[in-house]
Specification:
Oligomer: single chain
Order of helices and strands: HEHHEHEEEEEEH
Structural class: alpha+beta
Bound molecules: zinc ion
Number of strands: 8
Helix content: 25-40%
Distance between the termini: 29 Å
Shape: elongated
Radius of gyration: 22 Å
Number of domains: 2
Largest sheet: 4 strands, antiparallel
Strand content: 25-35%
Length: 167
């Protein structure tokens, strides 16, 4: 399920039942996808032919699927869109671009890029790091200065949504 499709889970009405084709149409997925869900444990009304799927059941099934799939990335990981898995980057290919956007006190949003060490695809993620020159943050004077690569700085994942909220 793509992000756009899973966003449509909210259109499922708990109190009604859906035929396979209706559910597929509502979510914008293939009929085969719904049949696969059924094999994966999505319950249909007992004895119903054609299959009827209670909206509430479908909703819970899909929501738990989506949340199970949410992955927390380790600081040195990227989500590779090609492997569809968290991956590390080839070390020499990692770059950090400042976005010029400040996050909270003495932190900035940066764009990290790399290349998947498995499939060589381009990788990208937002991250937060302390602003290298930060005269306005007297709270952390004895912390060792981040080196220029920024790779040893603990990085926090930021979703696209979070970064947009900062505008
Ligand atoms: Zn990959």
């Amino acid at each position: 399920m793509t992000k756009r499709q899973s966003a449509r889970i909210r259109f499922i009405r708990r109190r009604r039942t859906y035929r396979v084709g209706e559910l597929a149409g509502l979510l914008g997925v293939h009929l085969q996808t719904v049949h696969q869900w059924r094999k994966d444990g999505l319950e249909v009304l007992e004895g119903s032919r054609p299959f009827l799927i209670p909206g509430g059941v479908a909703k819970e099934f899909l929501k738990s699927r989506v949340s199970r799939r949410k992955k927390t990335l380790a600081p040195d990981e990227f989500f590779c869109m090609s492997c569809r898995l968290p991956r590390r980057s080839i070390l020499e290919c990692q770059t950090i671009e400042p976005t010029g956007r400040k996050i909270g006190h003495g932190k900035e949003l940066v764009l990290r890029r790399g290349r998947c060490e498995h499939c060589d695809c381009g990788l990208v993620r937002f991250a937060v790091r302390p602003v290298p020159e930060s005269p306005s943050s007297p709270k952390q004077p004895d912390k060792p200065r981040a080196d220029d690569s920024g790779l040893h700085v603990p990085l926090t994942t930021l979703t696209r949504k979070d970064s947009e909220n900062e505008r």
